[in-house]
Amino acid sequence: MADRFGALSGEQRVRLMRRLVEAGRAREIPAAVPPRDASGTVPLSPAQRDLWVYESLYPGTPALNLCCAYHFDAEEGPVEPAHLEAALTLVQNHHDILRTRISGTADDPRVDFPDEGPFVLEREDLRGTGTTIEQAFRAFRRRPFDLGSERLIRGRFVRVDDSRTTLMLSLHHIITDWWSFDVLQTEFAEAYRAVRDGVEPKLSRPVIQYADFASWQGELEAAGVFGARLDFWRRYLAEPPGPLTVPGHGSPEAGEDGIVQIRFRVDAETTRAVRALARERGASVYVVLMTAFAVLAHRVSGARDLVLGTPVANRSAKGLDQVIGYVMNAVPTRWRIADGDSFADVLARFGADFPELMANADLPVGRIVSAAAPERSAGRSPLFQWVFMHLTEQPSVSAVREFAEPERIHTGGEHDLVGVVRDSGDGMDGSFEIRTDLFSPEAVARWADSYLALLGQVTADPSALLHDLDMAPAAERRRLLALAEGPAAPAPESLPDTVARHAARTPDAPAVEADGLRLTYARLADRVDRLAGLLVRHGAGPERTVALALGRGAESVVAALAVQRAGAAYLPLDPDYPAERLRRALDEAAPVLLVTDAAGALPDADVPRLVLDEGAYEGEPVGDVPFAPDRPAYVIHTSGSTGAPKGVVVTHAGIAALTHSLTERLALDAGARVLQLGSPAFDISVAEMCMAFGPGGTLVVPPPGPLAGDALGRVLAERRISCAMVPPSVLASVPDGPYPALRVLAVGAEACPPDLVKRWAVDGRRLHNAYGPTEATVAATLSGPLAADGVAPPLGTPVAGTAVHVLDERLRPVPTGVAGELYLASAGLARGYLGRPAATAERFVADPYGAPGSRLYRTGDLAHRDDDGTLHYLGRTDEQVKLRGLRVEPGEIAAVLTEHASVARAAAVVRTDTTGRPQLTGYAVPAPGHTVDAGGLLAYAATRLPAHMVPADVVELPEIPLTPSGKLDRAALPAPRAATASRAPASAREKELCGLFARVLGVEEVGADDDFFRLGGDSIMAIQLTGQASAAGLVLAPRDVFTLRTPAQLALHARTSAGGGEDAADPGVGRFPLTPVMRWWLDQGGDTWAFTQSMVFPVPSGTAPERVRAAVRGLAERHGALRTRLLAADLQAEVAREVPAGAALVRVEVTADDAPATARRLAARTRLAPEDGEMMRAVWLDAGQDHAGLLLLTLHHLAVDGVSWRVIGPELAAALAAPAEAPRGPAQAAPGTSFHRWAHLLAEESERPEATAELGWWRTALEDAADARIAGGQGAGARRATLTVELPADLTEAALTALPAAYNCGPDAVLLSALASAAVRHRGTGAGLLVHLEGHGRQALSAPADVSRTVGWFTTQYPVLLDAGRPGETPAGEVLKAVKERLRSVPNGGIGWGLLRHLNPRTAAELAELPVPDVRFNYLGRLTAGDAAGGELLDGGPGAVPLGHALEIDALAKDGPDGLLIEATFSYAEGVLAKDEVRELAGRWREALAVLARETREGGPVGATPSDFPLVDLSAEQLALLEGGLDGLDDGDPGDLGALDDRGAPGGFGPGPEGDR
């Protein structure tokens, strides 16, 4: 079978395979590579083309170099470089691929194999240079190849020292793969031994070469085999996950530092266990190893849906085993991890998937990626970023080891992480090859340990649940627990005791400084003691709470210390908070006393009040109150996830440790002047007191009120602040300045951007990052001084007395570099939440690593730890967020919004607005009978929430979107309303690039700061953009688009070229697949040479012959369709780069009177041979110097349509009218998308899910339409006869103007409704008419394309079943409404029919079984001489257009003596329809139009239909009721319905603009 298959010609094989595919028998195609046609050109294989695109995006990259080295030792004797060269020459001569040269264009690259002569090695001598062989090999393999200008294999002979030499080889991946290396290595070993020993090598040239494989791949693609494979991959990869990322690790923007291999060894015992498990489960060793790798990826990344790549040899076809070349494929494997999965479950699922994966593994991965349409990001491989392979021991290694030690290196870089496990003796050697711009080698070394640990656990117990598998070996766990511990804590001490200690040592040192007040430590201690005595007398004491409603000021500092000195805990209340929130806090805390500085400033509450005045500090000081570290020190309310704030009860136990850590790490001393920036209601105020009083420094209290921006800058400068703790968003608002006193800053409460570090860590000033929740006494970690290195600042390391663990859901330490949740252990943990034991139990859990009874606080924060113990923040596990440094629980905000009477349900999230700033947005579902008034709702929220928790906007929704698990679906929430539009371009270059963006991306308008990829761009579009920029004179590389992304940035970077260039993505030349209408035409048969159209154009008198020749030649140069050659057997056509000779101008001398008749005669008899590339003939009918002549242009219909003539006419007129002295350079390519590119886009579109989803619509619409024809489907191919009729001016006016206005439709719907009624009456049965409609075919596709100025045959044709109702009973207006609705229901203007019927092999056969119309209708619109710049369309000869139906009607509007007239030509099949029948049908059509016009004038059922209101789901019945209601209005105005239509949809023209021929 394989031999017979190979003996067929390529065309025969393609036809055979296409039939097998269409019959669903693609698996019966022989797995054998046939020899190619040696006379044809050699294309790149699909896989090679993918690498060609990659190389275009990343020119000069060494990532695709595959390298090996052979190390020779003196024991084997001296090595002669000439022997190596001779051996490599033998191998090179046997394998053409090793002599590859790539030429041609980016759209149509070609391959040849010139004779390179003997293989010549480069030479290098390392002796005396200090360079090691490792360094030399690294430099060698990092050298890139230039695909267009050099050989793609290079070798170097290196003399390492007097006894050692090395041979290095580097090959570009486009000519080899790892399997090929085994072939090459085997043959090289044989050839080298033979040359060295002087014997004949036992080698022969393989019968099958890579060029045969590449051609075979092309045949598989042309036959639809690859398309059939895509069905599986589309199902398997439906809705693919995003790129696999490990939280907290780098991004490609960080810059490439290189590739590193982390090596590990699978010991013999584990290897035996892996093989035993494989046998037990009926799987291969690879399947077990791959599953363990997938589990590792899942546990490291946290992803539950991930795609991993795995290479396959792809050499099962006969003849491929000895081929060198890029044959292997990388196959995506999908892994979905569910809760409760065991390793055995995941292994079984992969084992079940594996056979089908392999059955479809020969489809090039680039096609799979395109079909899956995954999320892309610059510098990362799409679809899968992690790859795993298992390599068995290769025989070639043993052959080479007889004389050298081989070393194989993949330069790598196209994937983030590549795992390789190789069989080696009784064990296995493994490596993780990583990009160091993405991962740290130290972290990945720990992952390698985790992989080995996983293998040990799953082979011992395959039924183990995945979440029970421990990622950290025992030794690693001990190390991680040690890294979690902070320094030892000092002895506990309260803040009042700290102040008293300094008062005793340095009584006169300044302690607090505020406007109008300066307190020394002695005076501060005295005021604290006296106020404490007063508080005790008012009931304050241990385990009691005193509320302080004082705001920021010196009094609040004294009061807080006094409450603690009295043994009580203070409850800070911000007087600016809404009264309702303050009332709730007081009710919950039940304080014994409320201290304020102004009576009546707070809500009524049943709490005794104490108003502070000077008398408060004059009483007796407090007596001795014993200090207990576990006694509450303060209660601070944080935002609550349940909808109400939670009171956190914090003890004194952690205060001394916090004070010690801040003082020591920030290097504070008695001279420190610490700013009190925070409100007392936030625990940052506690940290500020610790920083000031700990070293005996001064707490500087600014005036009340918000402090940020310029005002904060003035305070820093004027008050000589030396230390401050500031939220990053507040610090970002402060202007740059010298601030000479400011020596240290601590930022915290939210993530700190790197640019803020760059701004503030200057002139010796230190900037530290602090992290910690209120529940852990302010801070749990603190970083060292941050470096302005552009990297996100770390959280740092634990403060004294605190352990910070990074744990999994089983409370086990995760390896370094892996995300986990932060858990805190410390004596300073809060007691819990006031009055909320359930919430306390949820967050404060038993500590498995501490002393009995100790606790952990579960922060809900995600982080990872570096190998040195430094922690890095990653995000939240719950909804809680920090906004401008303040903690926000969206649940609390949603609860407040829901309390409003107009709101049924609500949600709140932090979104990034169009300027990149975080914005708190509320979403509300209105209660029944209400609407959401955003302004009123926000005003209501402001009375119940702190200012920082009031949303910036509220968006009304019909429902709150939920995920399948019932949680809020944040991704489905609409973005908040944009505040501003994108910036308009400010320069000519920005304007040019904005226009190019819009054209390539297919959007109406692009702003200067719009991101190319956020607007929908991809790598191919980036190539398109740079090509079009080149044509506009701007030099950009595709990589620039990835890195710079916006018109503004690209405008700054772009260089100006000397002239335009060719768009690499759309050169407009080369082969393209025939479009659907072209394939339909081929199916009709007939005389292909007669299929022409002719138009005659005026030539002004006195026009020079050169001007006419230049005008004609310019057309052919600009428009590739006029240089096209038909390749019917391949179902392709080819656009030539050069203008064919047949396009030259022919000059014929005529008289002025004879010119028109001569033109008609020539038009009728001109024939063109498309198979020879003859698409155009031009004849100049020259009437002499003093008379105007005519230019007859005859084009093959394959190259032109009605719109094209409207392009050609003005171009010709402009060229003929140009001044004689005007210089003429080379014609530029037509603007926009070439027809060549369009044809490829149609082929791609036919495979898209959106297109194939239309199949059901077409099937349902047509399956019962066989009886709706007029001639039983006969007539195609018959002899053509014609009948032309005209409609009078009044009926024309009704059809073109009055009726479309009354029914909000286009003239085509009017004419078709009359035709349907006429056909049903003519037929005498049924109620419908099945008709083929034509359209111009230039609809938008999913890929951006501009064919508005492109010449070619774009026409689309699609079937529609029209309903004419019951003849004589159904009003004509109702028929028109039904026809209008049917036309508008056709998906995407009908273009999908041709794609599925003629281009998609999986759908073509099914649609071919449906009834075929025997009537075609085409309304060409209004055609005037001005449309084609004075050109007149002439009749062609007989057979110019094959008859494809029993009846074909072409209608157009033209100027007549009394105004516009509709002319309709009825072409009919002689012998199928009689002339009288056609005349009768035409008369009934005219009569039906007259009836429709009369009914409408007399008040028939005019009005809207459901499609006029696309934003409202209305049925025809509901619309009728609505119209009836409108008619009943007392002041009814016929214009009301039109106004409603303006809100719904503008008047339409059926499914799309008029068609053409």
From TrEMBL:
Necessary cofactors: pantetheine 4'-phosphate
Keyword entries, A-Z: Antibiotic biosynthesis, Phosphopantetheine, Phosphoprotein, Repeat
CDD domains linked: LCL_NRPS-like
Highest taxon in the source lineage: Bacteria
Protein name: Carrier domain-containing protein
Organism whose genome encodes this protein: Streptomyces alfalfae
Keyword flag tRNA-binding: no
Carrier domain residues: 984-1058
The organism's taxonomic lineage, starting at the top: Bacteria, Bacillati, Actinomycetota, Actinomycetes, Kitasatosporales
Region of interest called Disordered, as start-end residue ranges on this chain: 1525-1557
One Pfam family per UniProt: Condensation
Biased composition (Gly residues): 1545-1557
